[in-house]
Specification:
Chain lengths: ~450, ~260
């Protein structure tokens, strides 16, 4: 009784509409916490925005290519005459320059230029023209329009990377050449075009960023992903089902469990050197082959898949297992008929996240020789796709980024846009699969 | 009135279906069941009562060897169904569980259709020769589960979409679909409202005609209502086992009396 009356005395009577100091303090703390959260998200979004902005700004130019568009006709006599010369490509180049001059004159422009200037603008054109006529003998005598990629500095001049103020005369480009470029642009001979070659092409030489393409390494990445998918999904899912549902819980399985978690945190370069030692030096598999890259990435992806699969198996309510066992299903039937279908969305999401991670992995590929400059040829045939030397998207991007010519810099950014598109596609597939499997309760 | 019903039931005597002798269960270092010996009769509802953690569910799960799935659990002693030792190495627990059906505390239908829920057991045990056979089994089981009228028009709707009471009756239908001889029920009504509970209890009384039913319950009223025999567990011991009427009206052990009068538990 006394306690109660003392409490009455200690607590001042207040209505519910009056908030006391303690409540105010609590509410303030909650408000502060919310503010921190919003601030954190805003900072994150800001960084993301900045990242996307800079990727798009730097990468978009990679998808356009400044081309020199000239239409001209090689007569049979001209071809014969060129072929009879000692410097055959030079002869073709002279025809090209003559055609260019004629077209400029036709449009009433009079700019003086020499062969060297043309070479600085579009590179050595003779070889391309000659091989075109050798491959298509029917084209001789017909008007053929050539779209020749302009050199990286001319490209940069149109992209704003190179300006008259910053240009230093060199053997690559001289200030006087820009007058010619301006005239050609005015005549419509130099213009921008969508660079399909960047998406479908192969890597080019270090001095030809205009001809560089990501296509070959996309193929390399594709074959690697095939290897990763068909090895890591069955192995990973089988391992996790065994560990989660069947394995006895003892020190040995605990050790395996801990080590799987550890493996997921091992730097990827370690897997790279492991792949080099085991798959190439010991097993004698071909160097730079997507097969080896796929094997290395499988090792890397397995822990991710096992961990996510085990998590989704563990998330299936035990009552479902009891129910299945209760009607007399065997352990395996209960797992395959009931637990696995329920865990499927989680397993698929984990797998696709693992694959996406593998798709973006660079370091181990460099160690096994899948560097960018290897992607010079498309594989001939499906099976050769696994064994022919090739690169992969991120390794190709890395190689471009480390090249001196600034033209490659924007190619690297452009490559990143393509890589991100692939990753977004994969994640979308993950979301769609997840939705679909979840609906099938 | 209630007492008269119990007395009325007392005249029935049946064969022993499950005979347990000196059963010990250890969970790691915990001795969960101590020296339990009990004879459970055929075509009888036997209720296991007792405070939480007294081992009644554990003992129930020994009867269909569900405890095998728990790594640290060790069962010793002798449990016989129809005079056959179920812990004999030659006995396959999967086959045993088809013979000893189980209904769990929380309704746990498979996330499949109502039809597939019931048909799953017969399918994996090969009880149906063809589709129409299976249809018959499903209908018969759902009728026995007293849920047929409610679901016959939506057999292919998800079982998880039913109400709690319906789900539990679906689980009972699923358990009887494999034609078990013993039906174990682990607090089947603890998640249900009184109306659903009444339906399930009525069902249990009907199931007695064909099965030996063992039910674990926290509700002494329920034990009194549905069972003919009652076993009182306390701290892992079987304190008292006998006719339900006798346990509730005239217990011999002071602990039983304390529990049913609400002094312990």
């Amino acid at each position: 009784m006394t306690d109660a009356s003392m409490n009455d005395a200690a607590l001042p009577k207040s209505g519910l509409s009056v908030t006391d100091a303690r409540t105010r303090k609590r509410n303030a703390a909650e408000k502060r916490f919310r503010a921190y959260g919003i601030a954190a998200i805003s900072v994150g979004l800001l960084f993301l925005l900045f990242l996307f902005g800079s990727i798009l700004k730097s990468g978009i130019p990679a998808f356009t290519q400044t081309v020199v568009d000239v239409e001209f006709t090689m007569t049979q006599e001209a071809v014969d005459e060129a072929e009879s010369k000692m410097l055959k490509t030079k002869a073709y180049e002279n025809y090209f320059i003559a055609a260019l001059e004629a077209q400029l004159a036709e449009r009433g422009m009079d700019v003086a230029f020499d062969a060297k200037a043309i070479q600085r603008i579009v590179g050595k054109t003779g070889g391309t023209i000659r091989s075109h006529f050798q491959d298509n003998p029917d084209a001789i005598g017909q008007p053929v329009s050539f779209e020749l990629a302009a050199s990286s500095r001319v490209d940069g001049y149109f992209n704003g990377r190179v300006t008259r103020e910053t240009l230093v005369d060199s053997r690559f480009l001289q200030l006087s050449d820009l007058d010619l470029v301006d005239a050609l642009a005015e005549a419509g001979i130099i213009h921008g075009a969508f660079n399909w070659n960047f998406i479908t092409g192969k890597d080019s030489g270090v001095d030809n960023p205009g001809g560089a393409g990501l296509g070959a390494s996309v193929i390399g990445s594709f074959f690697m992903m095939l290897v990763v998918l068909f090895l890591s999904l069955p192995i990973g899912v089988a391992a996790s089902i065994y560990l989660e549902e069947f394995a006895p819980k003892n020190r040995f399985t605990d050790l395996i469990e801990v080590n799987i978690s550890n493996l997921a945190a091992v730097p990827s370069i370690v897997f790279g050197i492991l792949g080099l030692a085991v798959f190439i030096q010991f097993a004698g598999l071909p160097q730079s082959a997507p097969l080896v890259g796929g094997l290395v990435l499988t090792l890397m992806t397995l822990p991710t898949i096992i961990i996510s699969t085990r998590a989704s198996l563990a998330a299936v309510p035990p009552s479902i297992r009891d129910a299945a066992l209760g009607v007399g299903a065997s352990k395996m039937q209960s797992v395959f008929h009931h637990v696995l279908p329920l865990a499927m969305p989680g397993i698929l999401t984990g797998t696709i996240i693992g694959l996406a991670q593998a798709l973006g992995e660079t370091a181990p590929l460099l160690l096994i020789g899948m560097v960018g400059f290897v992607a010079r040829e498309y594989p001939d045939g499906f099976m050769a796709g696994f064994t022919d030397a090739n690169s992969a998207m991120p390794a190709q991007i890395y190689t471009w980024a480390s090249r001196a010519d600034p033209g490659f810099y924007e190619k690297a950014w452009g490559g990143i846009i393509i890589l991100l598109l692939f990753l977004i596609t994969m994640n979308t597939i993950a979301v769609i699969l997840r939705r679909r499997f979840e609906r099938r309760w | 009135m209630n007492d008269m019903r119990i007395v009325e039931r007392d005249v029935e005597t049946n064969d022993v279906k499950i005979a347990a002798k000196d059963v010990q269960v250890h969970y790691g270092d915990t001795h969960a069941i101590k020296d339990v010996s009990v004879d459970i009769e055929d075509k009888t509802v036997t209720a296991f009562i007792g405070p939480s953690g007294c081992g009644k569910s554990t003992f129930l799960r020994c009867i269909n060897r569900m405890n095998d799935t728990i790594d640290v659990c060790r069962v010793t002693g002798d449990i016989r169904i129809d005079d056959q030792d179920i812990y004999d190495p030659k006995v396959d627990p999967v086959q045993l569980r088809a013979k000893v059906g189980m209904v769990f505390q929380k309704p746990n239908p498979f996330p499949k259709s109502i039809y597939d829920n019931v048909a799953y057991g017969p399918r994996i045990h090969g009880l149906a020769k063809n589709k129409s056979d299976l249809d018959d089994i499903v209908e018969r089981s759902l009728r026995r589960g007293a849920i047929w009228e409610e679901v016959k028009d939506r057999l292919h709707a998800p079982g998880t979409g039913l109400s709690g009471g319906q789900q539990q009756r679906l689980c009972i239908a699923r358990a009887v679909a494999t034609e078990p001889e013993v039906l174990l029920m682990d607090e089947p009504c603890s998640a249900l409202d009184p109306i659903a509970t009444a339906q399930v209890e009525e069902l249990i009384d009907e199931l007695r005609e064909n099965y030996s039913v063992v039910i674990v319950t926290h509700s002494m009223q329920q034990a009194a209502r549905v069972s003919q025999k009652t076993a009182f567990f306390h701290l892992g011991n079987l304190v008292e086992y006998g006719e339900t009427g006798q346990i509730f009206t005239n217990p011999t052990d002071p602990r039983t009396e304390s529990y049913i009068t609400g002094r312990i538990g």
